[in-house]
Amino acid sequence: DAKTTQPPSMDCAEGRAANLPCNHSTISGNEYVYWYRQIHSQGPQYIIHGLKNNETNEMASLIITEDRKSSTLILPHATLRDTAVYYCIVRVLINNNDMRFGAGTRLTVKP
Amino acid sequence: DTEVTQTPKHLVMGMTNKKSLKCEQHMGHRAMYWYKQKAKKPPELMFVYSYEKLSINESVPSRFSPECPNSSLLNLHLHALQPEDSALYLCASSQDTEYTEAFFGQGTRLTVV
Asked: Cβ contact (<8 Å) for A93 and B99?
C-alpha cells in the first residue's frame, strides 16, 4: 500500500471548517483513500472513502486532487466532539484485508 | 446491529498468567482483525482472519495466539506476556472481499505486571 503523509497536529475554531490534508504521492490507480478518526480511548471510526471523485456524507467531505496525489478531508462545521486523531489510509478496495494506520493528524477543536 | 463487542474492557495480568481477549460481531462480516495500540501511537496490525482462516500474521511473538472459532468470534490468547505488551488491543471486522468500512470495538486495555 502507498504511504501517506499528514501534519502531526492542527487546531480549528469551533463552528469553522476543519481542512485536514493528506499526501499520497505514490498512490496506485486501484487504491482508494480512506479516512478514519479515533477519539480518545475509543476504537477508530470510519468517516469516508473515495477513489477519484469528491465524496460527501453526513460526517464530512473528501476532496481528491485530479492527479490523486493528495486529498483533503473537510469537516464543515467542527464541534468540540470532533477533537480526535484523523488517519488517512490508502488501500486497494477489493480482495484486500490489509489496513494499516499511519501517524495521523491530531485535530484539536477549540471553543 | 453494527457493534463489535470486546471483553473484558480492562485486564491486569501477571507475566506467568494465561488469559484471553474476546471479540464478537453479528454483522455477517467474514474478516476480523486484531490491532495493538500503545499510548500516543497509531494502531498496529497484528492478525487478520478471512473466512475463519488466518490471512495476515505480522510476525507477532508466539506469546500472542489468535483463534477464530466461528465467523462471529475472534479470540486472542495471551501467555507469558511482558510488561511492554501493555497496550490497548483493538478488534475490528469488515466484509471480506470488497470492504468499504471496518468497524472497531472499544478495545481491551491490558496491563502486564
From this structure: yes
